[in-house]
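Exercise 7. Given the components listed, write out the predicted structure of the assembled complex. Treat all entries as one system.
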Amino acid sequence: MKLAELATPAALVDGTRMQRNIVRMQSHIDALGVRFRPHVKTTKCLPVVQAQLAAGARGITVSTLKEAEQFHAAGIDDILYAVGIVPAKLPKAAALRRAGCALKLLVDSVPAAQAVADFGRAQALDFEVFIEIDCDGHRSGIAPDSDTLLAVGHALQRGGMQVAGVLTHAGSSYDLATPDALQALAEQERHLCVLAAERLRAAGLPCPEVSIGSTPTALSARHLEGVTEVRAGVYVFFDLVMANVGICRTDELALSVLTTVIGHQADKGWVIVDAGWMAMSRDRGTAKQAHDYGYGQVCDVTGRPLHGWLMNGANQEHGIVSHAPTPAADVVERFPVGTQLRVLPNHACATGAQYTEYQVLDTHGRVQAWPRFQGW
Amino acid sequence: MKLAELATPAALVDGTRMQRNIVRMQSHIDALGVRFRPHVKTTKCLPVVQAQLAAGARGITVSTLKEAEQFHAAGIDDILYAVGIVPAKLPKAAALRRAGCALKLLVDSVPAAQAVADFGRAQALDFEVFIEIDCDGHRSGIAPDSDTLLAVGHALQRGGMQVAGVLTHAGSSYDLATPDALQALAEQERHLCVLAAERLRAAGLPCPEVSIGSTPTALSARHLEGVTEVRAGVYVFFDLVMANVGICRTDELALSVLTTVIGHQADKGWVIVDAGWMAMSRDRGTAKQAHDYGYGQVCDVTGRPLHGWLMNGANQEHGIVSHAPTPAADVVERFPVGTQLRVLPNHACATGAQYTEYQVLDTHGRVQAWPRFQGW
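Answer.
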């Protein structure tokens, strides 16, 4: 199939750029001497994950048990579920373990650790459990210098579970925009997670793994002493938020939305396209960054950015494209009804989640559909 | 199944409230003496649409050809595709017509009308085509007093197509918040669409249908002289945006997200739940309204709103719930790990779109899964 034959809107992946992004991250982490465990929440797409594993990734990270089930069914055994586990989800986790999946769980409190231990003992399963560390105050996790850290470790060990290690995610890296700030946060992420591991070991607890990562810090780290694995997700496609953070160029973005012009409001300089917020997602992540791209940067059908043209408004199935700062007077002539355009998204994870498949473009201009899944 | 057995996050529908919302809208439009054609883009869920039809709706409105295909396959024949058609989508439209679907198309320009006519003639199909009218400047459509209106009508008629009528959507109603402003916009929507119909008829063109609607204007209209049908979508569930607009109360919201507490940051008064932006959508539609609900209003598991508790932050699979204006000191005791909560969403269309099924709760506390579809 060719681009012109695709039904729009479509989630278009530039296969060459994707592969280059995969190699870039893998090489960087290889050079730092640790394992790389990609976060598959970005794509939920088996061929993408297979490309990541073929490039050298070891195991995967998931954000839902559905991801774990789907990828385990596809033959991937080493899976880290990097969201705090709750009691009601333990039966599914047990089923995965019994089916041969080396599933790793995550906790950040004594009650959660206790619940895993109680359930595991009752089921005669010794779950591998990571302890989540808070390295930047942005979300979950235990302070690395807290008493709770050791209490959680002891609760797991006493309960007969395997303390797999410590894990952190410097999610606040998305708010940064300079190499110095990113390197400093990468070092903070590394240092605090290693500190937590050392405290557990000093208390006589095992802590084989030290797992860190976010796309911006992973690509900014200068050394990873004491770390055993890095996780990152959005690097596989990158997006406009990441371009604003400064860790990729816009010509490295592998995901765009293919759309068709359906009409105009010529007086206002508006081009109406058939990609609205359902196609782009409601993510406005660049709104608070240096360069606000609205709902996305508009490109021609070959992927060349059209300077000044953004999707500045979005309804469910309508996007409003216009030129800023000066509206264009010739929108009807420039973009006739039926014209195909591409739109680079703010956030590749959110945009991809709106689709049941990616359309992957090869260097010969041929397109192949790669299914992706949704839901929990 | 009971609530406590549901995997979270889940899209929970209060069946009683939904049915009440359906009856409210249908009765209101019935009393105004016109037909009601619900917009099914909100739910994309057959049992919901069947309930709307059972209550008296005549035909449906869709936002994608996939919706048309799915609902036609389920036995619904009278379908209006209310997004401007482009040439590349005409083969699918033709296939639906040939399969017996009374599919109505929409155009708002001479080139689009010409493309439909050229394709229709070549295929020996006389498509029923609506002309889109702009009644409030918010998106697509032709000014009702413009020459283009007549040119489009003539292009369709000359090309052998059926001019089905005129259609408008007062989408700017979402920006209003008083009954007076809503009534004024409802009257403007009616008046300008009827004006367009009268101009077509005066020019010797047929214009049997005058189709208007948005949830806020539909519920605010006092009379509908000259109108033949009303369209609306989000009324079936309502949401926090609609509550801010003032056309529903929060205890009429039928959709909420069921979530589970997975942890805390007690020092900050944060409760971490397993519903992030993937479960709520990225929609922040209340941000610019009188009451900003963050990512949603938190309720207890029975659906009772917890005053002051909002989802104030969201990552992909993590939501951060906190109390404002004063953070609570007792989050661990108040919401232990494993606690189920419900979160009312900003925008029911965007939130529902994140799920492959709704969990519908009946008056006996039993839950039934209703599938919904996604994509294009």
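Discussion: The first strand of chain A starts at residue 10 and ends at 14. Residues 361 and 367 of chain A are 4 Å apart (CA to CA).
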